[in-house]
Amino acid sequence: MCEFVENFRNDSEKAEKYFAKILAFSLGPVELKELSEKNEVKIIDVRHRSDYEIGHIPMAISIPYEELEGRLNELNKEDLHVVYCYNPYCHLGARAALVLARHQLPVMELCGGFKVWSEDFRFATTI
Asked: What radius of gyration do the chain's Cα atoms show?
């Protein structure tokens, strides 16, 4: 293994900071399910509307990424917003989270997107 990587991996202080950042701004399907059952989150599907109409996470609203900037007035700073896109390789969710953060809206991203929610965890979806 490269000496640089080995030294970096053995730095527990850097590891702590890194993982704290990940946990602060992302959550998994189980966490999202628990928050949504308690009505403590506003879920935003940033995929194309046609995909939302085929299936989406219960209680999610459709705000396709391309429409997000123009629809920020529908969101408020008191809600925790969780955005999701297609799958673990899609960056629409991260891009949407960046937009919301730039507008001082509390935001997190669902890890794995709709694919992980519906296929890996097999949680209910709404059609």
From this structure: 16
Cα separation, 38 vs 67, whole angstroms? 28
Dmax (CA) for the chain in angstroms is: 51
Distance (Å, whole) CA 121 – CA 48:
22
> How many Cβ atoms sit within 10 Å of the Cβ of residue 48?
16
Question: Would you say the pTM of this structure is higher than 0.70?
Answer: yes
Show the tokens assigned to 98.
Answer: 């960046």
Is residue 85 flagged as an active site residue?
Answer: yes
CA distance 57 to 49: 13
Q: Give tens-digit pLDDT for 13-37.
A: 988 999 999 999 999 999 999 999 9
Q: Which residue out of 2, 85, 90, 111 is catalytically annotated?
A: 85
Contact between residue 56 and residue 80 where contact means Cβ atoms under 8 Å apart? no
Question: What's CA 62's distance to the chain center, in Å?
Answer: 14
